[in-house]
Amino acid sequence: MNIRIPRAIAIAALAALPAAAQADVKIGFLGTFSGPAAALGQDQYDGFMLAVEQNGGKLGGTAVQVVKEDDQLKPDLGVQLVQKLLEKDKVDLVTGVTFSNVMMAVAKPLAESGVLFVGSNAGPAPLAGKQCSANFFFTSFQNDNQAEVLGQYATDRKYAKMMLLAPNYQSGRDQVAGFKRFFKGGTVVAEVYAQLNQPDFSAEIAQIQAAQPDAIFAFFPGGMGVNFVKQMNQAGLLHKLPVLTVSTVDGTTLPALKDTALGVLAGAAWGPDLPNAANKAFVAAFEQKHKRIPSQYAAQGYNAALAINSALAKTGGSTADKAATRAAMRSAGFNAVVGGFKFNTNGFPIQDQHVFEVAKDAQGRVSLKTIATPLPALRDAYVGECPLK
Amino acid sequence: MSPAFLLTQVLNGVQFGLLLFLMAAGLTLVFGIMNFVNLAHGSLYMVGAYVAALTYGRTGSFALALVAAVVGVFVLGIVLDRLGFAALHRRDHLDQVLATFGVVLFANEAMRMLFGSAPLYMDAPAALSQPVVIAGFNYPAYRGAIIVAGLLVAVGLHLLIERTRLGMLIRAGASNRDMVSALGVNVGWLARLVFALGAALAGFAGAMVGPILSIQPGMGEPVLILTLVVIVVGGIGSIRGALFGALIVGIVDTLGRGVLPGLLHLVLSPSLASAAGPALASVGVYLLMAAVLAFKPDGLFPVRHS
């Protein structure tokens, strides 16, 4: 027994050795892979790794090694893991990050390290504005974007009375603010803040019935969204009034909702039916590998890998010259699966924001269908506060 | 704020309370009789929901899904007890909390590895999927079914504990375990049966919430916390306390979320009200618990020792 353990370690070390020796660029992937929100991090990772595999384990012609770390949705753990990635693994790039609270916690150590960061989900407002960093790039969105497009949609549809619902934490209040930024011509009759990770929404649903709005806006990510949509349906409200949502019906929750969610609207930059060629290839490859429809998180992860691919190709696979890598990333040209995509001066995307409706796809599966593009080439609201030019 | 609105909210509170009662009844029995703090009670609830969703998906029968969840988690309770929970009964509470918390982490990861991180699908049976209209408000028929099921379980438990020989042994075991043992009753099996019964109730609760909640790893923890509040408010070890405690917590929580913010808007400025309302609503049940602990530390409906 005493002999076997060291031998096993030695074999494991030998087995790991060739891969480590070949990798020229090390990428740290920080995400939320456990707990109720694990599906989001997993999709970001699956999307990212799909692009790496399609390129034969290389990005920008250079072999890459991805070190995956689970922050468990704990900001303090996220900081420790970023330090581990930077100091022990000595990664050349960091990507991922699922939640904004983790993102805000790791922003400082990441920015100070000078290592390039490509975020594929969380896009908190401070990092787009005053606390922006030349080393940060995001292939997802600025958090407000998806609510803003629904605000514009509600304006276009001339909804007179809107009711807004979100969990009572920073991101929930940001989403409500984002919606109101573009909602003109009508009134917000009520704002209801539920508790974060609240399972039962009966009290809120009764308030919707009492307020009698023309439409509602809801931001309930993950399992909360499943609960909310199921309970709205059982109260007979889902098909009585338009339900505009952010991060509530998406690739991670639709399999648990199926036909229940038909007709619900969602604001996002990406959906599986976007007609560009890159997206068609991405969706087909993802479905073949994972036997499920990719979510927007998978698309954002895939875009992050494409962006890194493009930047590394320009620098010849080296990240030694930080300024050159930064410049290469900023001008990265790649076929993003959202169609047109550009990094703004603060590193956040300039991309079309669409409204999707939950509907059956050609194969009869419940998916998202594009119904409007109220805000083409949207820039975030905070770029003016960012000193980067 | 119309009377109909208040009525709907009270009904919502009662429904939520009865759901908490299903959880609290098992937890409080196990705590009262075996002096065993079982944090994994929420995991049993999660397993019940998974078993129900998978059975419903395979067979399309909601009744079968309920039976599978109750029987499955009952058996799981017996297995867990044999595998080590029984050995924890005589240890102190810290050991019990640590060990069962470990089981919580293990169960969540096990579900994630077996069924993935994405939630599972389960809908209400067709007969109950439509709302009924009560005083102008749509009330989901399925929630009505939860109220009925919760009341039936309450009556059933009352009859079991007060009117049967098994119930007599359970009450006797709670009062003086050693004496019951000396009288020739296998206390080990009595405890195991009570634990499995509590587990089955948690499994039943999990199956009942399947159609309204997201079935996913970690779904047991938010409910477990409120369940602990219920048994502290109601009085540890008391089924009657669990029922009334659960109804009080359910109604306080629902009215706190559904009515309090509206009331605050009448007296405070909109920005202050929208900040204070949700904050107060989220701590309402904990304030209640703190008040109960301060003034009636044994709970509002403690076990009567005659």
Description:
The complex is a heterodimer of chains A (389) and B (306). The longest helix of chain A is centred in the first third of the chain and has 19 residues, at 4-22. Chain A is built from 13 helices and 14 strands. Chain A is globular. In chain A, β12 (341-343) and β13 form a beta hairpin. Chain A has helices at 4-22, 38-54, 75-88, 100-113, 125-128, 145-156, 170-182, 202-211, 223-234, 254-257, 277-290, 296-314, 322-330, and strands at 25-31, 58-59, 62-70, 93-96, 116-119, 136-138, 161-167, 187-194, 215-219, 243-246, 265-268, 341-343, 349-360, 366-378. Chain A folds into 2 domains: 25-141 and 275-347, Response regulator (Rossmann fold, 3-Layer(aba) Sandwich), CATH 3.40.50.2300; 145-268 and 354-378, Rossmann fold, CATH 3.40.50. In chain A, 41% of the residues lie in helices and 22% in strands. Chain A has 389 residues and is an alpha/beta fold. Chain B has helices at 3-34, 41-59, 62-88, 93-115, 141-163, 165-175, 177-182, 187-209, 220-234, 239-258, 260-267, 270-295; strands at 131-134, 137-140. In chain B, strands 1-2 form a two-stranded antiparallel ribbon. The radius of gyration of chain B is 20 Å and the shape is globular. The model of chain B has no long low-confidence stretch (mean pLDDT 90). The chains are: A alpha/beta (389), B mainly alpha (306). Chains A and B meet through α2, β8, α8, α9 and α10 of A and α1, α4, β2, α5 and α10 of B.
